Every structure is written in structure tokens, then in C-alpha cells.
Amino acid sequence: MTPNWDAVRQEVTGYLQDLVRIDTTNPPGNETLAAEYLAAVLQREGIQPTIVESAPGRGNLVARLRGDGRAAPLMLMVHLDVVTAEADQWTRPPFSGDVSGGYLWGRGTLDAKELAAMELATLLLLKRAGRPLARDIIFMANADEETGGKLGAGWMVKHHADLICAEYAINEGGGFGLDILGERFFTCQVAEKGTARFAMRTRGRPGHGSQPTRDNAVLKLADAIQKIGATELPLHATATTRLFVGGVAAKVERHYGLDLQALLEPRKYRVAVERLPIDDGLRAMFYAMLHNTVTPTMLNAGCKINVIPSVAEARCDARVLPGQSAQDLLAEVRGVVGKEVEIEFLDDTPALETEYRTPLFETIRCVMKRYAPRATLLPYLVTGATDARHVSKLGTKVYGFGPMLGPTAELDRIHGHDERISIENLAFGTRVLYDIVSEFCGGERR
Ligand SMILES: [Zn+2]
């Protein structure tokens, strides 16, 4: 039985509208409200979900479609919380769920309630079709991703691993189309960077602001920050980035391909990246895919205008590549700012890199070939972090693949103003996801 895709488009639009209208801004989250909404929809169709709260109001939902156990489960995972929205900066209220001009508007329509709606619809369509499945399909919708997942996926892994054990998982993080140098690519996230955020402190002689000296904590901190901004850290081409860059290089015109390959070589990177006719967004993406990064984001020093403080502090968001540790990063940062600056790590989450030569990746590739015959699916390193870092602790191979047609410019609205998704994208993503899951889990015996 093939789903009626016009009806599905309506249905999934309704789910996303409903989800957007439930305000799950984190903090405080209140994801239980969204989990209960999903539970009611699932129950109506004969699927019995479980909601477990990590803290009051912080609900995590799990549901399961049973297969015959010939193969290990596939999990469809997503988070239900969203980041804050500055409502007065939006054209339409961020929790309106309005449909207008072919778009569904609201916070979470690109991160990640659209994926929640697609996964929900996929589960329901498979249940209605009544097709035999070779694998269980688990649906997990979590709290708390946007502040690190300690009360969401991290908590589930710690306390309810039995409910979510799976061989593979499909998550947010990839799946979008990227246009590079005239060719189209789709990303499948198989790797993500880790975090090694730190506080950077400088000290100096306190005193009266009317008598300046160079021994001033604020000046020393400014000097360190200036050096960080002006210096590129060493280049590290990890396996996934080699595959990604190599895959793009193989598809585009030959002279662009040579420059792309040169991005992987420390001595050639700078010249090649300047020469390629790509926009600053892509340049920033390639840079972050090939380097550990340090971004100063918070400053703190002094409490009175005429008093020289004895200490100044910057907080830096720092990300490390697969294969790199916080200690490796520290050595690189020391090489830039010198020994005198104090550095205290505030967190340390290792990066991830999963194998991509798997049957699931192959299924995704085959399905995408049908929908976008001229586009190429490539393994992709996400430079941020997702709940994959928690779930992969259970040995699950987590792929980021929330199918999205693009254009990529829309993705810039993630965490920004006027976040919205085109209904066309939503319908496309649902259809692609359904095909991937039904082909990967289908249990018809030959
Ligand atoms: Zn997200």
C-alpha cells in the first residue's frame, strides 16, 4: 500500500503546527507537553508510548514498532525543546505555527520539530501499512538537547538504555542539500566535533585608573583575544572531511577539484580557500571542518571605571575535531597566547566519528538517487554537537539525516529570527524518510 502523499502532506503539516504551538523553549523546556501530544497521536493509532521524566516537566517519549527480530533495531530520534525567540524581531509570532506563502512559521520548524513531525508520520504510515518489519523501529523524542541533553538523551542513555538500544539511529544534523560550485550534494552526518570550552584568565597589578601601566589584566586579555582572532590553528584533515571534500572535488570542474583537494594540505589551504569562488558561509564551514576552533563569546573584568582590576576573564567556545583532545587543543592555544594566560576547561566532550560504509548509508544513498538523481550523498562532519554524542555511547551508529531540499539559505534561520520551513520541504522530507525507513526495515521474505 503506497501512502496517499497529498493526504500525508496535510497530516504532517498539522503535526508540525501543533508541535510549534506547544512552547518548549529551553530553559525551562516543558517538553512533557509535547511528549504528551505525541503520545496521544500514537495511542489513537494503536501504538503504546512511554513517557519518562528526568525532572518535573522534562518528558522523554519512547515508542516502538515491533519487527520480527531478524535484524537489530533502528531508532528515529529527535529533540522536542527549542531555543528562545526574540518575539518582537519576528514577522510572525514564533509560536504561531502559521502557514503562509508556502511556509510553516515558527521556532523549531527547522530545529527540530520538523523532524519530529516527519518521524511521527513515518511511524504511523508504517503501522497503518501493516508491513512486516525485520527490525524494531524505535521512536525517541527527547527533552533538553539545546542545553546539552543531560535531562534528555544523556539521561535516557543513563537510566533507560533498555528502551533505546539500537544498532542504528537517524537524528538531526545532516540531510540537507548543499550547492557547491554548481553541483548539488546531500549531507549525511556521520561525525561531529567535540567541545572543550574554557575560561581564559589574565592577571595584572590592580590600581587607580588615572595611572596606567602595561601590567593590566584587561590589556593582557585583549592581547590574547586579538591573537586568537588573528591566528589559524593547525589543520587536521579527518577521515570524514577527506571523504566529504574528496567527494565534492570529484564532482565539480577539474580546476576547482584541485583547489578543493588542496584544502586538505596545511601549506596549501589558505591560498586554495581564498581562490575558490565560494561564499563566506562555505569558507567558514570548510575552516571549521578542518581545524579545532576557539571563539571568544563572553567577557568579564572590572566593576568600577576608575579601578584597574587584578583579573580579567574571557570565556571561549572551543570545538575539537575527531581524534583531538582538550589537551591537544590546549597545546595549540598555548602556542598562540603564550604560557602566562591561565586556561581552565569548563567542559570536555569528545568528538565522534562513525563508519559510513554500512547498509543504512547505502539505503539512504539509493533513496536519494531516486529523488535527486544528479545529487551526490556525502558523509559529513557536523561542526556543532547533537544528541548523537549521548546515544553513540550505547554503540549505536547515529546518522544525521533530516531530509531537506534546501535552499541552504533557509537553514541560516536556525536559532535565528523568522525560522520557517517550506511545506514542500516538509512533504519531501517525510516522503524520503518514509522510504529510507521502510526499505531499511522492511521484512518481506523473498
Ligand atoms: Zn537541534
Layout of secondary structure:
Blueprint: H1 5-21, H2 31-44, E1 50-53, E2 59-65, E3 74-79, E4 99-100, E5 103-105, H3 113-129, E6 137-142, H4 153-159, H5 161-164, E7 168-171, E8 177-180, E9 183-192, E10 194-195, E11 198-203, E12 207-208, H6 217-230, H7 239-251, H8 254-262, H9 269-275, H10 280-290, E13 293-301, E14 307-308, E15 311-320, H11 326-337, E16 342-345, E17 352-353, H12 359-371, E18 376-382, H13 388-391, E19 397-400, E20 420-422, H14 423-441
Parallel strand pairs: 3-6, 3-7, 7-19, 9-18
Antiparallel strand pairs: 1-2, 2-6, 4-5, 5-20, 8-9, 9-17, 10-15, 11-15, 11-16, 12-14, 13-15
The structure holds zinc ion.
The fraction of residues assigned to DSSP E strands is 15-25%
Ligands in the structure?
zinc ion
CATH superfamily of the domain at 5-173 and 386-441: Zn peptidases
Physical arrangement of strands within the biggest beta sheet: 1-2-6-3-7-19
Q: What is CATH's topology name of the domain at 5-173 and 386-441?
A: Aminopeptidase
Helix fraction by DSSP (H/I, runs of at least 4): 25-40%
Uncertain ranges: none
- The CATH class of the domain at 5-173 and 386-441 is identified as Alpha Beta
Derived from helix and strand composition plus strand pairing, the structural class reads: alpha+beta
What's the N-to-C terminus distance? 18 Å
Overall form:
globular
| CATH architectural category of the domain at 5-173 and 386-441 | 3-Layer(aba) Sandwich
